[in-house]
Amino acid sequence: MSTNLTEKSKKLFNSILKKEKIKKYLKELKKHHRESYEHILRAGLLCIKLGYKNKFSKEDIKLLGYSGLFHDAGKIKIPKEILSKKSLLSKEEKKIIDNHSRFSFSRLNDSEDNKIKKIIIMHHEYQTNPYPRKLSDRRKNKRKKERRIKIHSEIYKINKLAEILAVADMYDALKNKRAYKKQLTKKEIEKILNVQFSGDRRYIKQVLER
After folding, report:
1. Rounded alpha-carbon distances, angstroms, from residue 152 to 34, 147, 159
2. Quick one: which of 87, 125, 154, 179 could link to 130 by a disulfide (CB 3.0–4.6 Å)?
3. What is the rounded average pLDDT of the residues 83-100?
4. What is 3-208's CATH topology?
């Protein structure tokens, strides 16, 4: 991505980070689980970069920034032992982890956060094994119809923003070392995203160009 786009993205992202609500939340998450804290910072900035790259409106790019920061807010309710576990999770632990999107959703209480809530709750559905609503089959059946929806429609817009958040979240999780996995190469990331990301293919190309 161009230097100008990167600088513009950082400027907007830094302005969001100065918000009192954001500072309080980041401090809380950092204390609870530093790895998740670092992940949401990277994912939030990447969301903004992709927003500019795809010429979204300033309002939508801000929504992407906030969504990137808040998408893992629910992990504050997940025990540290589970978040930092290096071995495979048990079925019960996986179920607890999968609920973090719902926890993130419930954490946002302000009425102006409704769009962010929708983006967060939908972003995991752009995976081959989506959660928390398990609507991948229904989403695939609606894609042809969705293409006919006007670009400015609320549903279409939220879907596109959720796709951006999904690919940014997945890319960063794959690219960086986590407690349970090593850092992957670009080739490995591309292979996994092509299988597991069920959204717009061009977004895969865009994150890999970085």
Report:
1. 38, 12, 12
2. 125
3. 87
4. Hypothetical protein af1432 (1.10.3210)
